[in-house]
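Service request form, structural biology core

Requester: graduate student, group of Dr. S.
Request type: structure prediction, single chain
Budget code: on file
Notes: please return the result as structure tokens.

Sequence provided:
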Amino acid sequence: MAEKKQIPLRLSANLYNAIAAWAEDDFRSVNGQIEYLLTECVKQRKEDGKYVGQEIDKPIELDIK
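Core staff response, request fulfilled:
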């Protein structure tokens, strides 16, 4: 397997908690879930030349408490 690149990543607490809950549902680590989501986004972009969402740069509101 190719060596993986380590990068620092800062997330809001709400986003982290949402990803952590999703990762738990999918039986992945938070790191594994982030890598999975990024991989899916890159695949989607390669398939149709578009990002997953049309408003990818628009800030999101997470209604998580």
